[in-house]
Structures are given as C-alpha cells and as structure tokens.
Design brief:
It is built from 18 helices and twelve strands. It is an alpha/beta fold and 429 residues long. It has a three-stranded parallel sheet. A three-stranded antiparallel sheet has the order 4-5-8. It starts with a strand and ends with a helix.
Length: 429
Amino acid sequence: MIRVRFAPSPTGYLHIGGARTALFNWLFARHNKGKFILRIEDTDKARSKKIFLDQILEDLRWLGLNWDEGPYFQSERSKLYTECAQKLLQEGLAFSEGKAIILKVPQKDFEFTDIIRGSIKFAAGSFKDQVLIKSDGTPTYNFACCCDDHQMQISHVIRGDDHISNTPKQLAIYEALNFNPPQFVHIPLIVAGDRSRLSKRKGAMPVSYYREQGYLPETLFNFLALLGWSLGANREIASRDEIIKQFKLERVLKTAAAFNVEKLDWMNGQYIQSLNTEKLKKLLLPLLLQKKVITQNYDENWLAEVIDLLKPRMKKLSDFISLAEFFFEDKIKYTAEAKEFLREKEKTKEILGKLVGVLDGLESFDLPTVEGACRRLIAQEGIRGADLIHPVRVALTGKRVGPGLFETMAVLGKEKVLDRLNQVVKLIT
C-alpha cells in the first residue's frame, strides 16, 4: 500500500513551500487510495512551540488535508531511536564519542533512483561519518527520519529537492540498519515570479497570512497543486476531486515553480465569483464584525445587495472592506482631488441640483426607476452621459471608479443618495 508522510517541525509556522509538500503527499495518497500520515518532528525542544504546532494543524485542516494516522511526535519516540542506535553499536557499525553515537560511513558510492529526476549518484567520500544520537541524547534529523519511515512503513518520501543531499546519508543509515529504503521523490523548490529566491516580500508567507487576507482554501489548494505540476491543456481551475484524479508524480516538473501573486489573486477572484451570495456573506461576516463595519443588528437583505454588487470586483475577501466603505459611511470625506474634479466643469453644480429635484420626486428607488430618471435628465439637458455619471459617482462614493452607478444608487437608497448629492452641491462654490 502507498503510505506517505508529512513531517513538519513546530519551530515556525507552515509556509507555502511546506504546504505544497503536504499537498503533493496528500494528493499522491488520495490518488492511489493510500495513507497520509502526519508526523511532528519536535526533537528540537528549545525551538518547538505549541503555538506553532496548533497553527500548523489548523492550517492543514483549513486546506482540507486530513490525515489518516497521527499526529505522531518524535519527542515521544526516543525508545525507538535508542534501540536502533544501540543495535548499530553492538554490530560495530557505529561508535561512541562521548555521549554521542556516530555511524561509520563506508567508502562507497551511494546511488538511488528518484521518480522525478531519475538516477542520482553520490561518489564515495561525498560526506563524512554521520552523527545518529547527539551528546544531549536527541536523535539527528536523518537518523530519526530513517527509523520513523521504516517503522511507519513509508513507501514514498516526497519532499523538496533541497533534501537531495540528505538522501545518500539516509541511504547509509538504511543500509546499516538493514532496512529497505522508501522510494524518493524530490519536488522542485518554489521561487518568486522573477525566478529569484522566494522571500516574504515575494510570497513566502505563512498559510495563516493568506487565510487572514481573505484567500479561500479552495483557491490555495488549486494554486499550490499547480506549483510544479500541471493539469495539462493550459487549464488553471479544477475541483479538488479532479486534481486528485489527475495527480501523478510523473507529471511533476523538474524545474523550480514560480509563485505568482497576480495569478493567485486572479484565481481567488474566480473562486469568489463562483460562490452564491449566502455563502459569501457567511465568509465575510466575521471580518465585517471584527472591523466593526456592521453590528450584530445588520440588515441582511441590504448587505446581500451590497455583496452582489461588489462581488465581481473582489479578488480577496478583505477587498470588500475598501470596496464597500462608502456604503457604510454617514458622510463621505472627499479628497482634494475629488473636490477639484467636482469643480472642474461649470455645469456640475447645476446638473446635480436638478438631479436632486428629479430623484426627490421618485416614489420608487429601484434600478429601472433610478436609471430611467437619470437618462431622461441627460436627454433633457442635452449633455453626455459621462457629464452626469462621473460627478455623481464621485459625489456618492468619493471615488472615480466603482461598480455600475445606477446599481450603486439603488443599493445606497434614496435617503443616502439625496444627502450626499446635497452635500456636494453645497461643497461646490
């Protein structure tokens, strides 16, 4: 049976690279109806923190990467490491140096076949004797990995290609313990869009950051799956089930995968557009309440109208705050640029004044009625549509761009529209 593992260290948060490694392991297990095992490599007692562990587990759950076994903790498995090390000592394959136990590495070539990269060979003398147990009694990374992977019957080790240099060292340990090594799969690292090293400024942020910014788990799942792997036919969007069905290690690329924030934003926008209003409202509510944009006694129907209007312009859930702010303000604070724009044309004050009179007389304030009234005034005054639409948009929103003006007016409602137009008429001198 296919058995893979994801083995994070709780010395920091789960970043994009680690999440992609977890995802590839999970996809391979699900595609082959195998097992996905979670192992926590927490032997570094000084740096391992519960806050990191809790966030890693939460991020994996948020991404939908459920595990079949575990989490196992290396800090609770010291008996296994001691037994393996003592066995090597007794057989003369390792020696003690103080309290440390060190493997005698034979002077021979070490070669393995990587599923993605093919044959990889390390010449004799490429690395020195390997510490198995440190003087403080804790196992080294390579030794604990080998003991755990064997005991957990891991069939494939899927990890970043920065671990290639660890593989011959682990092969030496497997050989000394007379363990059959797993198959190795080294996936390409992730680089920035300009092919430079990935940094915080270029996307190397914790998964929790993307969650807080308003990216959907479905988006990040889809996006990460395409970092170093391809659906084929230039496809970008696919469901979780389809990605599982299509996922094969042979289609993982050998070259580094570029992290493109613009593509992530576009993809998240696509997923947001696919949500119905009720689902999107449920996702937005915690953010709106936290930011005090709304209170618990909000108007559900009106909020749904605002969401419907702004949804096509959203790339992230957090975008809603800036896009929608003018809906929730009692009075618009006009920038110097906005004031200058409103004063540019001589007839603006006159047109807005006439519009106030027209709108004030409307019994209904739905979209067709509002648009019809505005269109009639435009025709009556013999002006271009832009001569009314642009200044009215700035008057109502404080912005030069936004969703459709007449839709915006209908959602804002008669009272707010008239208040803001009157405010601007007084502002223009």
